[in-house]
Write a structure and sequence with these properties.
Helices cover 36% and strands 14% of the residues. It has helices at 17-20, 71-84, 96-99, 110-125, 141-147, 154-169, 190-194, 213-237, 261-283, 288-296, 305-313, 364-378, 404-422, 471-481, and strands at 10-14, 46-48, 53-55, 89-93, 129-135, 176-180, 242-248, 254-256, 318-322, 327-329, 336-338, 341-343, 382-386, 427-433, 453-455, 467-469. Bound molecules: 6-O-phosphono-beta-D-glucopyranose. The active site is at 386 (nucleophile).
């Protein structure tokens, strides 16, 4: 019997405000966290003025996200492309700073609210369900420089103020929300993934140079409280609303290099760094293994009974996650983290990596592994809200962009999504990452292109911003039109 995708499967694509919109200081918006970064893996351009951090944008440095692909002004055209592919859903984020430019105001910025009103109306008009991330690696910079971001408990109130305004304003338009994009990367990228800034540093040369585990676990706790309160509020405002957590779960596809028990236990430890976020946001409990880490490292997270009750009672409605790659753990080898996930040793059983210079291993079965693992562990609906491949591409002499590699990548991953559904996983949808070329999050380049639609802009920021369909455009349209029967 043919394997089928569910009838209401949400096919589509995903982007993030700071990588696509541009207009970084328009209509009242002020600097965001990502505005002072070229890529989220870089140091932010902040300088210490003797008493606090302040923005220090470097003249002539290429902050491509400041203009990005100008989606802010061109979204009608871009959504039309998505519509032509038959998208049933489109994921983007709200730039918190458009709604509250400093983050601590009492009243929102109407121009920002209006922009998203119009954007969501257009998606709905084109038959796309808006799937909205409330914070995708960004927040008003002022909240970090003034308060330290999530190191400060006041953040929960600023956040709830923002979320209350958003939930009320878009009630009836937006059903699917997720809170913090890939918040499980906070330990490796505290500034961008965690929204954390040490505002009492000893080292004033380098941002967050001496952050402690105590600080990071405390910030994580505040994020957990904010997540649970967001779920609670969402259900109160609109019982139809679904609020998910959003995590980078390529990390779970970390395989042991050998059957040496130390490799096996090393993998257990590595995965737990990420399960922690799921365990708290989906099961509502701090797991025993983290309490051991706290004991052994003299970490004392301040938390009240009330907060723990909120965390226990208001868990995620679904798990949204990104999956790009897998990696291999060996007890004597270091593991790095990038936007694709964990990067340890190469896997000799995988045949391919993406081309230079990024060379991410291609492991479609890793996606099936992650889906099954999550289903067995949490039993919640799963939403694949990022999967895709970044390639260095150019228009050829015939005016075409041939991207067979991408078609194959999608095909192979969707086969594994189908297998996962057969295995019994409830999968809500598949949102391809970056359906139109956008600025890469990790390195801040245009050259790393994920799209079905090519955008004429290069790493120097030059180009007409014209859009062109790549070969994969028709391929993905066919997949959606057949509800995945014609892969
Ligand atoms: C995810 C992020 O980690 O990976 C996206 O949520 C990001 O924002 C994507 O763009 C791909 O990473 P990159 O660095 O290739 O853009």
């Amino acid at each position: 019997m043919a394997k089928r995708f569910p009838e209401n499967f949400l096919w589509g694509g995903a982007v993030a405000a700071n990588q696509i919109e541009g207009a970084y200081l328009e209509d009242g918006k002020k600097l965001n966290v990502t505005d002072v970064l070229v890529g989220i893996m870089n140091q932010p351009d902040l300088k210490w003025n003797g008493s606090k951090w302040e923005p220090a944008l470097v003249p002539n440095k290429k902050y491509l996200s400041h203009e990005a692909i100008d989606f802010y002004h061109r979204y009608h055209e871009d959504l039309e492309y998505m519509h032509q592919m038959g998208f049933k859903a489109f994921r983007t984020s709200i730039s918190w700073g458009r709604i509250f430019p400093n983050g601590d105001e009492a009243e929102p910025n109407e121009a920002g609210l209006k922009f998203y009103d119009d954007l969501f109306d257009e998606m709905i008009r084109l038959g796309m369900e808006p799937v909205i991330t409330l914070s995708h690696y960004e927040m008003p910079l002022h909240l970090l420089t003034e308060y330290g971001g999530w190191l400060n408990k006041k953040m929960i109130d600023f956040w709830m103020n923002y979320v209350t305004v958003v939930f009320n304003r878009y009630k009836g338009k937006v059903k699917y929300y997720m809170t913090f994009n890939e918040v499980n990367n906070i330990f490796r990228m505290p500034f961008a993934a965690g929204g954390v800034l040490d505002i009492n540093p000893k080292n004033t040369e380098r941002v967050n140079a001496d952050l402690t585990m105590q600080q990071l676990y405390q910030a994580t706790h505040y994020l957990f409280v904010a997540h649970a309160k967001t779920v609670k509020l969402g259900h109160e405002i609109d019982p139809e609303m679904k609020v998910g957590c959003m995590l980078s779960l390529s990390h779970i596809a970390t395989y042991p290099y050998t059957c040496d028990p130390d490799d096996i236990l090393g993998v257990v430890d590595h995965r737990r760094k990420h399960y922690l976020f799921l365990d708290v946001m989906c099961k509502g409990q701090y797991p025993g293994y983290v309490k051991r880490i706290w004991r052994e490292n003299d970490v004392h997270v301040e938390m009240s009974e009330d907060e723990l009750n909120t965390i226990a009672n208001f868990t995620s409605d679904y798990i949204a996650f990104s999956y790009y790659r897998s990696t291999v753990y060996h007890k004597d080898a270091a593991i790095r983290v990038d936007t694709g996930g964990s990067a340890g040793l190469n896997n000799p059983y995988l045949k391919e990596t993406s081309p230079e210079p990024w060379c991410w291993p291609v492991d479609p079965k890793g996606l099936r592994f992650v889906c099954n693992d999550l289903n067995d562990r949490y039993g919640l609906p799963l939403f694949i809200v990022e999967n895709g491949i970044g390639l260095d591409e150019a228009v050829d002499e015939n005016g075409k962009i041939q991207d067979d590699f991408r078609k194959r990548y999608i095909h192979d991953h969707l086969v594994q999504v189908q297998e996962s559904i057969e295995d019994g996983c409830e999968i809500m949808g598949y949102l391809y990452w970056g359906p139109i070329d956008i600025v890469s999050a990790g390195t801040g380049e245009m050259r790393k292109r994920y799209g079905f639609v090519y955008v004429d802009r290069n790493n120097d920021g030059e180009g007409s911003l014209d859009r062109y369909k790549k070969d994969s455009f028709d391929y993905f349209a066919k997949v959606i039109a057949s509800n995945g029967e014609d892969l």
